[in-house]
């Protein structure tokens, strides 16, 4: 796309330096600015609850006149309630976010062969969701068009207006460079390389878009909708066509300096092993991802898909069970190394193999125990996610309501 790279540096502009996206309704720049200011107000209300307009001005850094205009429009659209009150002995207006028929965030999760869209209220109640099966190796731009169709359908079904949509969170299967919000080559499928996800979707949807990878979003979802929401140090391990980890450290998502964190799939586990898409050999992803398992089985069994693999394991197929155990042993070793450094309270296995439960957790745990100190072993739970394939989309919606977003909005 032209105009996206700074000729002086050879890099795309930072998120803060990007121009506001063109919106579906004009004038584009004014609508974009209003949406972004409204999002700042929503984040403040989610964080501290009902607030006066003066308090909102202090928290957001917006002028009192701007706050007054924003909350008046939000009240007109049924997003907030305005109640007379007093503050420091003076008359004021208390602003309260409405969740029953008010603002929502959308989460879009792109998988290898599926697309999930969810609508979530600020209190994290799920308003609606839909999952769509896609063709293998689909064009991401076709996925963007379909995501807009599904999102439009969900808004219509729930009676929620586009004006009430405060933003859209998006998850893709690969790391994101936080400096320019572009997929990191070598960690994503070839179809996603050089695709400007944020710009493409903002052009289509006309609302602010935040972006992160699927594993990071899965970790966020686990702290809200999972069974271990009380954990302040959590690792979400996504094992699918790739392998990645999302990290919650001291109660917050950890993204590092560039956003490339938790890439356990590119830790070498077999010297001179299978070639990996990152350019190295013997990476965990090349040896223990679902695709690696399918490749090993394809020459000796009729197993061709993830669904076939799950069914074969559940039916007790000897070859499938051996492949699962071999992969689990490598996975356990790597997460053991990770736990020795981070000492998480819980490691949550996500992805399509989580449904196998103890069949995959037991060999992971045995390998894990051999590679950590007894204290770390005893203090770390290894469990399967209960969110199925919903975690990434749910986590994406949560980003819209949290400062953990990878983009300043």
From TrEMBL:
<protein>
    <submittedName>
        <fullName>Putative NBD/HSP70 family sugar kinase</fullName>
    </submittedName>
</protein>
<dbReference type="InterPro" id="IPR036388">
    <property type="entry name" value="WH-like_DNA-bd_sf"/>
</dbReference>
<feature type="compositionally biased region" description="Polar residues">
    <location>
        <begin position="23"/>
        <end position="32"/>
    </location>
</feature>
<dbReference type="InterPro" id="IPR000835">
    <property type="entry name" value="HTH_MarR-typ"/>
</dbReference>
<dbReference type="GO" id="GO:0003700">
    <property type="term" value="F:DNA-binding transcription factor activity"/>
</dbReference>
<dbReference type="Pfam" id="PF00480">
    <property type="entry name" value="ROK"/>
</dbReference>
<dbReference type="InterPro" id="IPR049874">
    <property type="entry name" value="ROK_cs"/>
</dbReference>
<keyword id="KW-0418">Kinase</keyword>
<dbReference type="InterPro" id="IPR036390">
    <property type="entry name" value="WH_DNA-bd_sf"/>
</dbReference>
<keyword id="KW-0808">Transferase</keyword>
<dbReference type="InterPro" id="IPR000600">
    <property type="entry name" value="ROK"/>
</dbReference>
<dbReference type="Pfam" id="PF12802">
    <property type="entry name" value="MarR_2"/>
</dbReference>
<feature type="region of interest" description="Disordered">
    <location>
        <begin position="1"/>
        <end position="37"/>
    </location>
</feature>
<dbReference type="GO" id="GO:0016301">
    <property type="term" value="F:kinase activity"/>
</dbReference>
<feature type="domain" description="HTH marR-type">
    <location>
        <begin position="36"/>
        <end position="91"/>
    </location>
</feature>
<dbReference type="InterPro" id="IPR043129">
    <property type="entry name" value="ATPase_NBD"/>
</dbReference>
<comment type="similarity">
    <text>Belongs to the ROK (NagC/XylR) family.</text>
</comment>
């Amino acid at each position: 796309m032209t105009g996206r790279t700074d000729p002086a540096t050879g890099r795309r502009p930072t998120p803060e330096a990007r121009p506001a996206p063109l919106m579906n309704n004009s004038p584009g720049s004014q609508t974009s600015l209003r949406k972004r200011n409204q999002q700042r107000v929503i984040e403040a209300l989610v964080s501290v609850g009902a607030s006066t307009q003066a308090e909102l001005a202090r928290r957001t850094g917006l002028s009192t006149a701007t706050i007054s205009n924003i909350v008046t429009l939000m009240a007109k659209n049924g997003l907030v309630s305005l109640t007379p009150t007093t503050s420091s002995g003076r008359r004021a207006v208390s602003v309260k976010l409405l969740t029953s028929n008010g603002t929502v965030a959308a989460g879009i999760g792109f998988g290898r062969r599926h697309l999930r869209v969810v609508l979530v209220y600020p209190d994290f109640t799920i308003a609606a969701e839909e999952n769509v099966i896609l063709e293998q190796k689909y064009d991401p731009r076709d996925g963007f068009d379909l995501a807009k169709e599904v999102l439009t359908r969900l808004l219509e079904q729930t009676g929620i207006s586009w004006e009430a949509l405060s933003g859209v969170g998006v998850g893709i299967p690969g790391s994101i460079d936080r400096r320019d919000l572009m997929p990191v080559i070598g960690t994503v499928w070839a179809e996603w390389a050089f695709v400007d996800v944020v710009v493409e979707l903002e052009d289509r949807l006309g609302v602010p878009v935040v972006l992160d990878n699927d594993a990071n979003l899965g970790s966020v979802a686990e702290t809200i909708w999972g069974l271990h929401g009380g954990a302040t140090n959590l690792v979400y391990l996504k094992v699918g066509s790739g392998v990645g980890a999302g990290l919650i450290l001291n109660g917050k998502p950890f993204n590092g300096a560039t956003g490339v964190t938790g890439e356990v799939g590119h830790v070498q586990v077999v010297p001179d092993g299978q070639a990996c898409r990152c350019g190295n050999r013997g990476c965990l992803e090349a040896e223990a991802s679902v695709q690696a398992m399918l490749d090993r089985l394809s020459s000796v069994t009729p197993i061709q898909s993830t669904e076939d693999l799950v069914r074969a394991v559940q039916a007790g197929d000897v070859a499938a069970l051996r492949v699962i155990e071999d992969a689990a042993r490598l996975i356990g070793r790597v997460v053991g190394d990770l736990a020795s450094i981070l000492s998480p309270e819980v490691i949550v296995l996500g992805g399509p193999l989580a449904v196998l439960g103890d069949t995959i957790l037991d060999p992971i745990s045995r390998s894990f125990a051999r590679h950590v100190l007894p204290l770390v072993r005893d203090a770390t739970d290894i469990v399967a996610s209960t969110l199925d394939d919903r975690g990434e989309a749910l986590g994406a919606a949560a980003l819209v309501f949290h400062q953990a977003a990878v983009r300043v909005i």
